[in-house]
């Protein structure tokens, strides 16, 4: 299930729900269903990644990082495949329960989310193998997750929700970036053309830093839009910039794939702290 990456599913629901609360539209039932859907889709995607990377030869004994269950022989491929579909089935069921809040168009969102999660490493054109994994994460763990969470509670999508979604999506992408940065050598040999493999590690470091700057900039932008005092937004952005800069330095200084293993969990923790911090200043602002 890769628990260290699950903040990517929790953070957008926290932020979308905080924005809904800010406009007086928070609905606990809808928020819980959004959280269930997001978590189950990500867990299903992680199962799919474990299964398909093994099947395609990307997870081998040369790979350095947390053990993959199928590649390590801990879980049979057929069992992982069934677990993947069980997770997606449960996610879809929780998504159907949201129809009474958001309407039948949410079925299309649910189908697109599940199909994209499978297509990340599976199917005839796996997104992750063609450098599109970052786009998938940004769109579905950022724009879709935050905006849909806000919509099912508030009945609309606001500019503030889109801005916050951009920040969450950027930081969620950093989790994937660190994973791909660590696996760049084995991915290249397996034909997995992630952005790190395609454009190199210097570009990846620039992307990582740009995402952090963007997320801190959104905190300031939302303050200028009147959601909370400008001084508070600037202060929180400055505080969060410090651990973000330290993470960027760790990425830059990494001498081996093993050096990046702790950073993956730290990026997940940073996303969680960012989401909670944004939710807190939204509460204080109101």
Short note summarizing the structure:
Helix content is 75%, strand content 0%.
Question: What is this structure's SSE topology?
Answer:
Elements: H1 7-22, H2 28-56, H3 77-96, H4 99-102, H5 106-119, H6 133-154, H7 159-182, H8 184-190, H9 195-199, H10 201-224, H11 230-253, H12 261-285
**Mean pLDDT score, rounded?**
92
Helix content estimate: over 70%
Question: What is the helix tally?
Answer: 12
- Which descriptor suits the 3D outline? globular
Give me the secondary-structure category: mainly alpha
Q: What is the total number of structural domains?
A: 1
Please report the distance between the alpha carbons of the first and last residues.
36 Å
Strand-and-helix sequence, N→C? HHHHHHHHHHHH
Number of beta-strand segments: 0
The low-confidence parts are none
Alpha-carbon Rg, integer: 19 Å
Quick one: biggest sheet?
A: none
What does this structure look like?
- The relative contact order is 0.14.
- The chain has helices at residues 7-22, 28-56, 77-96, 99-102, 106-119, 133-154, 159-182, 184-190, 195-199, 201-224, 230-253, 261-285.
- It has 286 residues and is an all-alpha fold.
- Helix 10 packs antiparallel against helix 11.
- The protein starts with 6 loop residues before the first helix and ends with a helix.
- The protein has one domain.
- The protein is globular, with a radius of gyration of 19 Å.
- It is built from 12 helices and no strands.
């Amino acid at each position: 299930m890769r628990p260290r990456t699950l903040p990517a599913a929790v953070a957008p629901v926290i932020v979308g729900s905080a924005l809904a609360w800010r406009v007086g539209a928070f609905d606990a039932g809808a928020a819980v269903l959004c959280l269930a859907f997001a978590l189950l889709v990500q867990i299903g995607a992680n199962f799919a990644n474990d299964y398909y990377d093994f099947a395609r030869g990307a997870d081998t004994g040369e790979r350095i990082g947390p053990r993959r269950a199928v590649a390590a022989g801990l879980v049979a491929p057929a069992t992982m495949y069934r677990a993947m579909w069980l997770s997606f089935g449960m996610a879809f069921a929780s998504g159907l329960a949201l129809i009474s809040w958001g309407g039948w168009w949410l079925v299309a969102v649910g189908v697109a989310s599940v199909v994209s999660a499978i297509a990340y490493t599976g199917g005839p054109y796996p997104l992750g193998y063609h450098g599109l994994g970052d786009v998938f994460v940004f769109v579905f763990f950022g724009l879709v997750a935050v905006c849909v969470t806000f919509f099912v509670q508030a009945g609309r999508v606001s500019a503030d929700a889109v801005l916050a979604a951009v920040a969450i999506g950027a930081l969620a992408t950093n989790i994937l970036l660190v994973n791909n940065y660590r696996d760049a050598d084995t991915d290249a040999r397996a034909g997995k053309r992630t952005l790190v493999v395609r454009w190199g590690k210097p570009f990846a470091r620039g992307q990582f830093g740009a995402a952090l700057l963007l997320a801190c900039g959104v905190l300031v932008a939302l303050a200028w839009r009147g959601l909370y005092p400008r001084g508070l937004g600037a202060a929180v952005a400055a505080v969060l910039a410090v651990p973000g800069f330290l993470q960027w330095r760790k990425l830059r200084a990494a001498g081996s794939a093993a050096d990046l293993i702790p950073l993956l969990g730290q990026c997940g923790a940073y996303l969680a702290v960012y989401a909670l911090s944004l939710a807190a200043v939204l509460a204080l602002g109101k």
